[in-house]
């Protein structure tokens, strides 16, 4: 079955199962080799890259829908997602499905709700769905070079902007770094998110003052230089900071 016939069949079933005009698009950020990545699908139809999004069933809540969608489209489960924006430009879906007439469910005008999360790529085994050629992590720096469908690049940019705003009041790193890490490794993560270099002394002082780190009685061995101290996140303080926020720095 070719990709167009596949979408036509999906359209027939979708009209009975899903709510019209609303969808959800999760932006899942990962961190590897000191760079941010984002989870994307390359679709069978038109060979364009999209977020692993989808439609909301008539009998489910929106938050439940986005978790189900992510599982069905990428195989990812047990993940906390946070809503960050709504996207509703006219023709955001229609032009992507220009090969079809107006009766196609997917071609209707959809307002989509954006969610984002931060997780280590190594945590998941990706499984693309039947509508996708591949599901993979793509470095953020590579995104301008690939062809996106609809407005999904814009959604990613808004998710990154939101993340950069919240990094001053909410901690990051627990889902992106190994259990034990060094301060330079944590600094590299913050620099990757913010897109700029940070002063080492200022960063170390500020991150320690937040009270979310525990210094361990061990060092990272194997390097040519002095072995750096290892840290882990203080679970209780980290959860409190996620819930209540922390002083802006």
Automatic annotation (TrEMBL):
Alphabetized GO MF terms: hydrolase activity
Pfam families: NUDIX, WHD_NrtR
UniProt keywords, alphabetically: Hydrolase
CDD domains given in the database record: NUDIX_NadM_like
InterPro entries for the chain: NUDIX_hydrolase-like_dom_sf (IPR015797), NUDIX_hydrolase_dom (IPR000086), WH-like_DNA-bd_sf (IPR036388), WH_DNA-bd_sf (IPR036390), WHD_NrtR (IPR054105)
Domain named Nudix hydrolase: residues: 1-164
Protein name: NUDIX hydrolase
Organism: Chryseobacterium antibioticum
């Amino acid at each position: 079955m070719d990709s167009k016939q596949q979408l036509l069949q999906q359209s027939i079933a979708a009209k009975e199962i899903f709510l019209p005009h609303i969808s959800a698009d999760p932006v899942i950020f990962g961190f590897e080799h000191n760079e941010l990545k984002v989870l994307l699908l390359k679709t069978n139809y038109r060979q364009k890259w999209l977020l692993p999004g989808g439609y909301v069933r008539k009998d489910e809540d929106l938050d439940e829908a986005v978790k189900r969608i992510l599982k069905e489209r990428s195989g990812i489960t047990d993940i906390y997602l946070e809503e960050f924006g709504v996207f509703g430009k006219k023709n955001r879906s229609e032009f992507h499905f220009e090969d079809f007439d107006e009766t196609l469910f997917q071609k209707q005008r959809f307002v989509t709700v954006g969610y984002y999360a931060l997780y280590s790529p190594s945590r998941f085994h990706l499984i693309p769905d039947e509508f996708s050629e591949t599901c993979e992590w793509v470095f953020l720096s590579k995104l301008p070079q690939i062809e996106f469908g609809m407005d999904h690049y814009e959604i990613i940019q808004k998710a990154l902007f939101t993340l950069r705003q919240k990094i001053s009041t909410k901690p990051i790193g627990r889902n992106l770094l190994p259990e034990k890490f060094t301060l330079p490794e944590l600094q590299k993560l913050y620099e990757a998110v913010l897109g700029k270099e940070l002063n080492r002394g200022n960063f170390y002082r500020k991150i320690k003052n937040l009270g979310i780190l525990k210094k361990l009685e061990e060092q990272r061995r194997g390097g040519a230089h002095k072995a750096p101290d290892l840290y882990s996140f203080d679970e209780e303080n980290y959860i409190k900071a996620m819930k209540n926020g922390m002083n802006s720095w």
